[in-house]
Write a structure and sequence with these properties.
Distance between the termini: 73 Å
Strand content: under 5%
CATH class of the largest domain: Mainly Alpha
Helix content: over 70%
CATH superfamily of the largest domain: Cytochrome c oxidase, subunit III, four-helix bundle
Number of helices: 7
Number of strands: 0
Largest sheet: none
Length: 265
């Protein structure tokens, strides 16, 4: 006889996805190194590893959605734990970008003789911060306002309005990504052009990667909202996406002020 659960915590069932994700990450890492060093089969192993990771992400999150939406395992206590966990994840992301900013300011505040003792280094033509970067700032801030609109719509029980707000957020995110790609294509320097190129493309590139991940996150939330998964009482997945998107917004503001504007003076 199976006893009824006497607590509000979710004890997850055994799952194959952690080990499959680990194997996918191993294959991706080894394949990436082989590919970069021109070993035969490196590209194939890298591709298989990425496919394996993407498949694991899909089926694992599918199971999480079933547990929360259909099986009702995400009680108030579980939701609180998920919020705490996601906050800690964002803190770890803050530390990641802190390292990038540290590298930038370490190089720019005391430029070495190898780069001419000045910042920006000799021979580097910097981008005008008041062209595409400033436009992208306005676009990203507008997307942050749109995702807040979506949150308020969910809390008010206005499902269609929340879907419209999420569609607007995703469209603005795609426009931002398109402009960022155009800026990279037109940039007068590359990642190999001294420490300036390295820090610029590393910081803005990782931010762009986070924008793409956040966009996918918001697309999934939009689909779930359309299907009626999110309610005013239970929308932790959307809250996580909104927090992540606001984090992306704040990081971009720091990038614009420090790297684009101050770093190009």
């Amino acid at each position: 006889m199976i006893e009824s659960q006497r607590h509000s915590y979710h004890l997850v069932d055994p799952s194959p996805w952690p080990i499959s994700g680990s194997l996918g990450a191993l294959a991706t890492t080894v394949g990436g190194v082989m590919y970069m060093h021109s070993f035969q089969g490196g590209a194939t192993l890298l591709s298989l590893g990425l496919i394996f990771i993407l498949y694991t992400m899909f089926v694992w999150w599918r199971d999480v959605l079933r547990e929360s939406t259909l099986e009702g395992h995400h009680t108030k206590v579980v939701q609180l734990g998920l919020r705490y966990g996601f906050i800690l994840f964002i803190v770890s992301e803050v530390m990641l970008f802190f390292a990038f900013f540290w590298a930038f300011f370490h190089s720019s505040l005391a430029p070495t003789v190898e780069i001419g003792g000045i910042w920006p280094p000799k021979g580097i033509g910097v981008l005008d911060p008041w062209e595409i970067p400033f436009l992208n700032t306005l676009i990203l801030l507008s997307s942050g306002a749109a995702v807040t609109w979506a949150h308020h719509a969910i809390l008010a029980g206005k499902e269609k309005r929340a879907v419209y707000a999420l569609v607007a957020t995703v469209l603005l995110a795609l426009v931002f990504t398109g402009f960022q790609g155009m800026e990279y294509y037109q940039a007068p320097f590359t990642i190999s052009d001294s420490i300036y190129g390295s820090t610029f493309f590393l910081a803005t590139g990782f931010h762009g990667f986070h924008v793409i991940i956040g966009t996918l996150f918001l697309i999934i939330c939009g689909i779930r909202q359309y299907l009626g998964h999110l309610t005013k009482e239970h929308h932790v997945g959307f809250e996580a996406a909104a927090w992540y998107w606001h984090f992306v917004d704040v990081v971009w503001l720091f990038l614009f002020v420090s790297i684009y504007w101050w770093g190009g003076i």
